[in-house]
Specification:
388 residues; alpha/beta; Leucine-rich repeat, LRR (right-handed beta-alpha superhelix); 10 helices; 17 strands; 29% helix; 21% strand; globular
Length: 388
């Protein structure tokens, strides 16, 4: 056994003894020669060392990402702050914590202490800290103001106006991507200008969007916005769309997911809403659009096409995922769009009646080939990626 092999084996043995989260089935053989159980032929040492490195590399990559839920969150955090177990926390780059019950103060201290050991963390998701029955209380009570990591992506369902959360976001000024799940918001709250100055990607419900668009000062350089618009809060749709339009000079991609229950689609004139939205901004850099949900009859399909052609003359890629449609005529829609748009190159259509297969749904992609020609191909997209 050479010196490098001895060091590898010593490191593995130490982690086997110290880290209860390490899978016990992993081992990296270090002997000079091993034999196949099938043909009894020796495996060359160079090939064996390559397989060792590959196994070690895959294991290390797996240790960089972790998703925990319920009781597992506290169990992992308590183990992490135990002496000689800090190395696991230091390896993590992506972490998701989902609390099923609002944690107690002592439990939050444990989680905070564990998170402070994660020097390499870049992507953090924390949900379940908010109690919907206690709307007056701050939902973010993790003490991370002196954290040792620098996040690039952050996701939460906590109230954005929580002072502890604002302090945390103020310290994490490198965040470029943020996702806000459904949570309560103080009406009229505006996120301070100095918080999230480099934010480029934002996914949020309609009532959260206005807090990111200040009426004065420097706007955040948003390039992609994904907006969820629920029927229950239709009164917030207008302010949310108006807030998105403020980023018309930088926005490159926009997704609107109209979350309307079946049976109520007819109460919402989606093409009219899209048309009003289109007239709000200049959309100088917008090249990708996606609209999901809503009911479309023959007249509203034509109105949808017209709203795209009238307002989004820089868009190169359009995806449409209707909630329901009277007539399934995607090729006619594609030809109508290409005939009226000089910029559009790709049109994707997902049949609302198409069944999912292994979590993916069939999508038809129409590409502009010439003056009057289009090509068609099939794609399979994960439902969450398609806004469904």
């Amino acid at each position: 056994m050479d010196q490098q092999d001895q060091q590898n084996q010593l490191l593995i043995d130490q982690q086997d003894q110290q880290d209860p989260w390490k899978p016990k089935y992993l081992s990296i053989p270090t002997h000079k020669q091993t034999f196949s159980l099938h043909d009894n032929e020796a495996i060359p040492h160079d090939e064996l060392k390559a397989s060792q490195k590959d196994a070690w590399s895959k294991w290390r990559d797996a240790q960089k990402k972790l998703s925990l839920r319920g009781h597992s969150v506290l169990a992992f955090c308590r183990t992490t702050i135990t002496p000689n177990c800090h190395h696991r926390a230091m390896m993590l780059t992506t972490l998701s914590l989902s609390f099923q019950q609002v944690p107690k103060t002592e439990e939050l201290r444990v989680v905070s202490a564990a998170l402070k050991l994660m020097f390499n963390l870049k992507d953090l998701t924390v949900t379940g800290l908010f109690d919907p029955e206690k709307e007056d209380e701050d939902a973010w009570t993790l003490d991370l103001r002196k954290s040792n990591f620098t996040l690039r992506r952050f996701a939460t369902d906590a109230q954005i106006h929580s002072m502890d959360l604002l302090d945390f976001l103020d310290a994490q000024n490198g965040i470029e991507e943020m996702k806000v799940f459904k949570s309560n918001m103080i009406p009229g709250f505006l996120l301070p200008e100095e918080i999230l100055p480099h934010l480029q990607v934002l996914e949020c419900p309609e009532f959260v969007m206005p807090c990111f668009a200040r009426t004065c000062g420097t706007l955040r350089p948003l390039k992609y916005v994904k907006l969820t618009l629920s029927a229950e809060t239709m009164g917030e749709w207008g302010p949310a769309m108006h807030a998105v339009s403020k980023f018309g000079d930088t926005l490159e991609e926009f997704t609107a997911n109209f979350s309307v229950e079946k049976g109520f689609e007819g109460f919402f004139d989606i093409p009219e809403i899209i048309d009003r939205f289109g007239k709000l901004g200049s959309w100088k850099k917008l090249n990708s659009l996606e609209f999901c949900g809503g009911h479309f009859d023959d007249a509203s399909v034509i109105a949808f096409i017209q709203s795209i052609l009238n307002n989004f003359n820089t868009v190169e890629s359009l995806m449409w995922v209707p909630g329901s449609v009277d007539k399934n005529t995607p090729e006619w829609i594609a030809r109508s769009l290409y005939k009226g748009s000089a910029s559009l190159q790709h049109f994707r259509y997902m049949d609302p009646d198409a069944a999912a297969v292994n979590g993916a749904r069939r999508c038809l992609k129409y590409c502009k080939c010439g003056e009057d020609d289009i090509s068609k191909e099939e794609e399979w997209l994960i439902q969450s990626d398609a806004g469904a």
